[in-house]
Model the fold of this input.
Amino acid sequence: MLRLMFIYIAIQDFYYLINMLSVFQTHPSPPKNQPIANQIITLVDQILSAKKQNPEADTSQLKKQIDQLVYKLYDLTEEEIKIIEGGYNE
Done:
């Protein structure tokens, strides 16, 4: 059962990263946002590297950093962020 839980978590992480990368491929950022986009790409690379070394690695802090950068990239309000984060808790 524990092994299945780890596999489930790994699959979630994989889909999270794929979604983040697909956003940047389908919606390229304007040049003024390129530094933020580059930071996100660096963090995604760090997550992929950590998961390659240890599939059970805790990358939650890196994901939180990505979330914050995406909020900044799209200039989301506090209210919009609360709605988005509330969706993760359901």
Notes: The radius of gyration is 14 Å. The mean pLDDT is 76. The chain has one domain: 2-88.
